[in-house]
Design a protein that fits this description.
heterodimer, A: about 290 residues, mainly alpha, ABC transporter involved in vitamin B12 uptake, BtuC, two-stranded antiparallel ribbon, 11 helices, globular, B: about 325 residues, two-stranded antiparallel sheet, about 75% helix, Amino acid/amide ABC transporter membrane protein 1, HAAT family (TC 3.A.1.4.-) (chain A), cell membrane (chain A)
Chain lengths: ~290, ~325
């Protein structure tokens, strides 16, 4: 492998990892704070991608479409939490699994009804359409770098929000002791609604960002869900820092495996997960 | 008394006689026989999962690995164009699956809870990609089984596996035997310890039991039965393919088991039949069956807190 090819794969891996982080962070946040195992999280990623396509077709602007999609995702999150998830806080993980599997069915069906089952595509917005030359023969698309930077930006905002703001303080408090937070006069239900909606929005934003890079197909949510679970578990359930490290690790391993050991590439991240869990049964950064 | 709960007894007395008589009425309709057979095979698989998840508290999302393994093992060890003995190969497949389960169980049972869900998933996904990415195993298309085994014991043959009705009865018998086996297991000393571990692992350890060993044995038993179900599936359709060990197979088995009533064992049959029945009916009524299926699953979580079996038990308790 030449240096330039290595470099391209490195950027690819990091970029994929950052995108994974965007989805996985919502999953781990919702689990860490609310104790909810949301299998329908991948569906939100799919919904984001489809919404992006729909609004790009109707408004013509990727930026506008991204903002509308994020807002719609936020509303879906609030609605789902208020009507369904709220019933399950005191139930076990298995009921949550069943409920969220039911939600996957519903979202997949709605996707089929609203947008059909043909693969769709969103073109890269014109302002980001170029490519940066790396060497004489290799170049790297601007849009992918933009997505990587966007993910880093969102990660930084999340870090700031959780560690420096009042909402973040409440989230951290809710994570360690629900009853105590309630006793202090804080409406934990409202907090949960906010956290869940943010989680849904993060997944949808990742879907929007991924839309121009990959084709939009039914079932894209389930595929990414499993990968994100791998990320979340390697990082340690509920740890956002862990999800960040694990996402980059998974992104790099997956990218390099498909170049170096193509016959094992699909298995590689699972081998990585099994290996890490056998050494550290609680993940890398367990609380 | 083997079937102690009233609901369970009623269910057994309704379900098995009906299933026994069904081919008499539907013998001409090959489709229903074959559909019923496949649902019963899957119910057997769900039952083995139900024991693991509901009784032992070991939640796995990788049980389909053994379902698929049952099919692939048969292709691997049986000669391609020669009929082998069904019972001998059942023994072989269960033994090999047990050996595999022993190794994997030894690794995965070190973790617990959500981490165990994920590590079982990891192993199942490895197996999935191992079979779906390899050319020798037919890749995504899977493999065909050309010759079905014969079923003689000491020269006496009761079943002809090429006859769908015979095969139907073989599966019904397998399902019934599995149910009886699990009831006996649960009521045995071994089963009591497993229940105790589920209730309180700490105390059971303090009582001097090696809980790891009990969990491992339960895992091996459930996995061997899961492989047997996969073997039956392969014999019914004459092929194996990687979708048998996809995580969605484990997922839907888990849904059926929760739907039926986790840990009730007979609930696995209920859950599988209700799920497959709904699936079949809705699929024929509307193109968007998934919407209704999803809504029904959500509604069932809200209404039936302990699955259908739990709901029925509650109804009967109110009456008496």
């Amino acid at each position: 492998m030449t240096t330039s090819l290595f470099l391209v794969q490195l950027i690819n891996g990091l970029q994929y990892g950052l995108l994974l982080f965007l989805i996985a962070s919502g999953l781990t946040l919702v689990f860490g704070v609310m104790g909810i195992l949301n299998l329908a999280h991948g569906s939100m990623y799919m919904v984001g991608a489809y919404l992006a396509w729909y609004f790009v077709e109707h408004t013509g602007s990727f930026g506008v479409s991204a903002i509308i999609s994020a807002i719609i995702a936020l509303l879906i999150g609030i609605f789902v939490e208020r009507t369904l998830i709220r019933q399950l806080y005191r139930r076990n993980h298995l009921d949550q699994v069943l409920l969220t599997i039911g939600m996957i069915f519903v979202f997949n069906a709605l996707q089929g009804i609203l947008w059909g089952n043909d693969p769709l595509g969103v073109s890269v917005p014109e302002s980001l359409a170029g490519a940066i030359p790396l060497t004489d023969v290799l170049e790297y698309p601007v849009y992918r770098i933009f997505v990587a930077l966007l993910c880093i930006g969102i990660a930084a905002v999340m870090y700031f929000m959780i560690n420096k703001t009042r909402l973040g303080m409440l989230i951290r408090a809710g994570e360690s002791n629900r009853e105590m937070v309630e006793c202090l006069g804080i409406d934990i239900r409202k907090l949960y609604t906010i956290v869940f909606a943010i989680g849904v929005m993060l997944a949808a934003v990742a879907g929007v960002a991924a839309a121009p890079m990959s084709s939009i197909v039914p079932g894209m949510g389930e595929h990414i869900l499993i990968t994100c679970f791998v990320v979340v578990v390697i990082g340690g359930m509920g740890s956002i820092k862990g999800a960040f490290v694990a996402a980059l690790l998974v992104g790099l391993v997956d990218t390099f495996a498909s170049v170096l050991v193509p016959q094992l590439s699909s298995m590689m991240i699972y081998i990585l997960m099994a290996f890490i869990l056998l050494l550290k049964p609680q993940g890398l950064f367990s609380s | 008394m083997l079937f102690n709960k009233r609901t369970e007894r009623i269910f057994i007395w309704v379900f098995f006689p009906l299933a026994l008589l069904m081919p008499l009425f539907l013998a001409e309709n090959a489709f229903y026989i074959s559909k019923m057979t496949s649902v019963m095979i899957f119910a057997l698989f769900v039952m083995s999962l139900d024991y693991l998840v509901g009784r032992c508290g070991l939640i796995t999302l990788g049980h389909a690995m053994f379902y698929g393994l049952g099919g692939y093992l048969f292709w691997m060890i049986a000669p391609e164009y020669e009929a082998v003995n069904f019972w001998v190969y059942t023994f072989y497949i269960c033994m090999i699956a047990s050996a595999v389960a022993l190794v994997i169980g030894f690794l995965v049972l070190r973790t617990s809870g959500i981490y165990m869900i994920m590590i079982t998933l990891a192993f199942a996904q490895m197996a999935f990609y191992f079979f779906s990415d390899s050319i020798e195993f037919g890749g995504n298309d899977g493999l065909f089984i050309y010759v079905k085994p014969e079923t003689s014991i000491f020269g006496l043959s009761f079943f002809n596996l090429d006859d769908p009705v015979h095969f139907y009865y073989l599966c019904l018998l397998s399902l019934f035997n599995t149910l009886v086996f699990f009831r006996l297991l649960i009521r045995s000393r071994f089963g009591r310890v497993v229940d105790a571990i589920h209730e309180n692992p700490g105390r059971t350890t303090a009582l001097g039991y090696n809980i790891f060993l009990f969990r491992l044995m339960s895992y091996v038993i459930a996995s061997a039965l899961g492989a047997y179900a996969g073997y039956l599936f392969t014999l019914q359709y004459g092929f194996v393919n990687p979708s048998m060990l996809a995580w969605t197979t484990s997922g839907s088995a888990l849904v059926m088991s929760i739907l039926g009533g986790m840990g009730s064992i007979y609930g696995a049959i209920l859950g599988t039949f209700v799920y497959e029945g709904l699936h079949y009916t809705l699929e024929h009524l509307t193109e968007h069956w998934m919407l209704f299926m999803g809504a029904l699953i959500i509604a069932m979580v809200m209404v039936f807190k302990n699955g259908i079996a739990g709901y029925m038990e509650k109804l009967l308790e109110k009456r008496s």
